[in-house]
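Supplementary Text 2. Reproducibility record for the structural model of the 1507-residue chain.

All settings were left at their defaults, and a single model was retained for analysis rather than an ensemble. We include the record here because the model underlies the residue-level annotations in Supplementary Table 4.
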Amino acid sequence: MSVRGRCAKVLPSELNKVCPERGDDPATHPRKMSDFEVVPNLQQSSSSVSKSRRKAHFPTGSNEKENLISWIPENIRKKECTYFVESSQTSDSGRIVCECGYLREQHLDDGAKPPIFLGKEWDPSRHIQEMPTDAFGDIRFTGLGQKTGKYVRVSSDTPPRVIYHLMTQHWGLDAPNLLISVTGGAKNFIMKPRLKNIFRQGLVKVAQTTGAWIITGGSHAGVMKQVGEAVRDFILSCSHKEGEIVTIGIATWGTVYNRESLVCPMGGFPAEYVLDEENQGSLSCLDSNHSHFILVDDGTHGRYGVEIPLRTKLEKFISEQTKVKGGVAIKIPIVCVVLEGGPGTLDTIYNAITNGTPCVIVEGSGRVADVIAQVANLPVSKITIALIQQKLSVLFHDTYELFTEGKLVEWTKKIQDIVRSRQLLTIFREGKYGQQDVDVAILQALFKASRNQDHFGRENWDHQLKLAVAWNRVDIARSEIFTDDHDWKPTDLHPVMAAALISNKPEFVKLFLEQGVRLKDFVTWDTLLYLYDNLAPSCLFHSKLQKVLLEEREHTAGSKMPRLQLHHISQVLRELLGCSTQPLYPKPKHTERPRLSIPVPHIKLNVQGSSLRSLYKRSAGRVTFTMDPVRDLLIWAVVQNRKELAEIIWAQSQDCMAAALACSKILKELAKEEEDTDTTDDMLALAEQFEHKAIGVFTDCYRKDEERAQKLLTRVSEAWGKTTCLQLALEAKNMNFVSHGGVQAFLTKVWWGKLCVDNGLWRVITCMLFFPLLYTNLITFREKRLQPMGCLTRLRAFFTAPVVIFLMNILSYFTFLLLFAYVLMVDFQPTPSWREYLIYFWLFSLVCEETRQLLYDPDGLGLVKMASLYFKDFWNKLDICAILVFIAGLTCRLIPSTLYPGRIILSLAFIIFCLRLMHIFTVSKTLGPKIIIVKRMMKDVFFFLFLLAVWVVSFGVAKQAILIHNEERVEWLFRGVVYHSYLTIFGQIPSYIDGVNFNIDQCSPNGTDPYKPKCPETNADNKKPIFPEWLTVILLCLYLLFTNILLLNLLIAMFNYTFQQVQEHTDQIWKFQRHDLIEEYHGRPPAPPPLILLNHLQLLVRRGLLRRPATHHKLKEKLEKNEEAALLSWEMFLKENYLQHQQCQEKQNTEQMIRDIAQRVDVLAELLDLDRVKRTGVVEQRLGSLEDQVHQSAQALRWMMQALRGNGFSSGEDLPAVGSSRALDFKEADLEGKAEERRPPYHVLARNLLYPGSHTLRFPVPDEKVPWEVDFPLYDPPAYSADHKDMAVQDPFSLSLESLLKINYNTMDGLIDRQSFHGLYAVRDGLPLNPMGRTGLRGRGRLHCFGPNHALHPVVTRWRRNLDGSIIRKSLKKTLEVLVAQYPLSDVWALPGGSLEPGETLPLKLKWILRREFWPQFQNLLKQGTEVHKGYLDDPRNTDNAWVETVAVSVHFDNQNDVEMKRLNSFLQGCDPELCIRWQVLDKRIPLHANHKELLHKVSTLLGAYY
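Retained model, structure tokens:
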């Protein structure tokens, strides 16, 4: 028996017992109300759970707990019985209990006293009071690992908005995209293993893929247990990210076993809960696999079903909320899934259907679910009391005797109403074609309900598409939305396209592109800015943009953050792409630009406060499109590292090779700054993929046409900042691309200039030394104009070739080094000789060349950027270092007093100049990679020296301190500590470290000799060393062990690793490095130093005096527009071939083939498994078909025999029976049933169980019991008559015989017309009887008169026309527009008409719409109109004794220029402002009252129009 929580008196000791982990911690006590915002209006307190922290369902921060501890008691209550009233029943242990079900000691102290209501009946409204809840927090299931959830005890009267606020704001749940309400049997039941697996897998799949909430009863039994186990199995089989499924259990607090462990007034964090099924008795345990629990308390104990009303209200409230995600705003859809179940489940299904909630019934799960599933396909007229009785006797065989005759009638009526709403009912049958999974059945049920829902125009289809996007179910969108039933315009898909992009749903983006969305029409400036405004805050690019905006705000000294513009994006992109590219989005000259957009109606979308619909509204101006929309979308996807999106968009790109290389560059730059290692790895992997795409496209291009492919390398791409593919590849260090054979062939061609590449190197050197040989056949040229022997341009072409310039510079540099070495070693005089002056002149030419390289800026990057690019190159740094050292040495050399130091410095400069020779070797395929190895090994040595220094210094200091006392000479300290220790590694062991080899003549005893070290500690007598030789020897051995063996071998291993790493990519590294050398000598003046000064002089004259612009080198080529367009088209064609080839390769991949085969085997096994299930159904279908054929044959024979007999061919014998009478009766009944299905034989709306505008429930009347002639002994309807105080004329609302006898039926009763259009009606006990039969309610209801209540409904129509005046047709029929109105306080639209007041000719509602002066003219229109209906109207207000009869008149304007129609429109414009009136397209989905739609159907049939 559970113990009640006593919130009124909670002592600290009791609190510690209930929540021992809380203790007396002051942080756990609630703050004052003034410390928090008062939250009756659900305002979240200042430090509540924020959106950014909602991924964790369980708050751990102290602030979050404090907020929860304060917020919940202020806003959520529980219920307690305050007075003990003894019940006639006893507890399970035989003790006396209160009427509420609790023991006396479980009441509050005051409530346990003798109450003042002694002897009176227990009244929940008076005896039960609300008070702050005392059970909430985290729930942990003991013995089940770390299964932790959330729970709260709430009053049954808690507003749903408070609970929803708790779940979304304090529990951190994201609003759902779908609400799945699972209902059914509360006790354990047996399901077929296969059906159980299908249900479990389908339920969690739909919840996980759509982001749904699953709501159940929360107990560890029945359908709730099935759901919990399904979630558990899914979580165990998936990763942590995939395994988050929100499963909410709404249970009755008074039926939860062990609930006393959940009571904790200060919140349980966590509360330990024991799941004990053995001892639970009539109570139930909570299910451990649910994530959240809402425990509904009405103050009673042991009473089930308390939670149902609150659960219904909460589900309805959630389904009315709007979820905004990914640019799509949708009302949260709800679906009810039913397994098994009893009477309560039937009520749940009936209420769901009544509220318009689609239901999925799982056939084969048992009881109620099977009853409904088995009769769902029958006509309603076939669902009789006898049939339901038969089904119940089979499926409820254990409890069938509990069904009374009244219950059978009620069940029959409810099942008839459920089956009548077939658009909301979906039966999941195992093995049903096209519906093998529960998740598909659930989503199809929602689409089926949405498709059959009444709507204006095309908003229904938009809603379905928004649902599919929100759920990320592209399979459902393909099968259910993009069908032949609706034609989608590409512009209709623009808003959902933006939503799919923002929410990263690549499959939908691909689907929309297949449906005809053109990116050139979709991407506008506004759209692009909108996409960047909705970057994820965790994205690195977003933080870089924010940094740019902050810098701009600081620069402008403004207080407001500037609005994001495209030039801000361009600034960040230029940092990522490199400054060799021009800005992709130039800064506009004007601050404001006209914001223009594209028309897409009928879709409401919203994200982060920005209206997406505003981007696609109607505009009179032109739309501002971007230069390259595919590029813009590709960049947007790449900077967010969205792989699938980027690949889909790249496939649409035209300049695909440059796009792939640019994406690779952007991703690699972002990866350098990304802090998350997983994201970094993903970025680098995606960058590599884009590099492979570029290689694949270039390979196909190179195979087709080498020359055009090489043009693609050097073509200036306007879309990518006027850069080239080759430059992008080099900036991104894409070695694989640069080392491609086609790229290397191009570089080789550039290297040889106008010479043929097959000229031997010895020929070039020979012609370089003896240039007259150029006019022989020794050297060949590529260009035909250079072939003639006497051509003077041969000389220029030869000496301007980069290979010749390189060889001449090598020769020049060797000459310079030889001359420099000769001067240093032989001819270094106090006065410089002519050779030395030549060296100075030579160096001056080198300085001029370095200055030219620094200032050469053909792309207009600026001096600062050129300087940074110049100093990035290692060899340039080495050149500057050598020049500066040479200048320093030269300065000292020219001063006589520092002549010798000058020579020393110049000698050091010579070393640096010699090191510069290594750059020459990069052209060699053999030596080039070795130089890279040396450079990398230098880094290894640098880090190795840190380790070595630790051992050298530690050993040196210890040795010096042990051997020598107080050495004060700094130079000898350095020698002893560092220098000698370092030499020891290489075998030069100091002799004085060992006493055996000690010689006192080799040292200075007092340290006075500057050329000798100080002697170690020695004996004063015999001058023998006294230091501990054993210690110094051990230290020396250990030192040599670690340095010689360990550290040096470590260095060798590091060198070996570096060598292996470089050696594996030797070819790539050499090819990549080769480009720098080729580019350098391609743009270098042809003359070698010092003759290069002539070229510098020429350049100075051209740039400085003649003001001619710098000439661009050939590695960047600007093409003509026509040529560029043809080249890009060719590239795009080959890109398509490349993508098709990749798809074929993926299909032929062994692993992919194995996966495909495995999938086919699974499908085959599934089909074989389903074959047994389908076989029975197929046999039944064939037998039914055979029965139909036999019946048709029997009918034909019967007709033939009757015809023969009528013509006198009868033999006089009895006519033989053809076909069984039973089959005939069955067939006729079936045909009648189908006719009835098309049009119900009896009134339906008048038998709805809940009477409108009241809480009165009708007596259930099945179809077969509607006619008064049918005997119905159980019929005992309630009476209800509303008192209309605003009506001057109304019949009495009491059913006393005295007042009823004053009424004259079937005649004019004063001003009231009580005559029926159907003739005389019966009167029984002073009350008229509804001519259409029973309704389940006596009295007059909300109608004002007994008997017929007359009404008038004008149906005003016109033809729907195009702008040119032509009539619009659909399915070859003309389409109509009808005048409809929406009255105040009404959510539905209706025809402009209604009840006629006594003595009036026009309804009051019609007068509201029309001006008074138009009333007579409208009466004339009615007289000229055509009467389409006159008689009974199936109205929800009808009762047994009062009903509505109407006259429907069709007023049709055939001509669009009709004067009366124009007058009508003019008088409609001045109607009541609270009314809404419009011309609406007429079809079967128009959202009107059901009885009004029947009138519209008759009008459309009369006019031959589409319906």
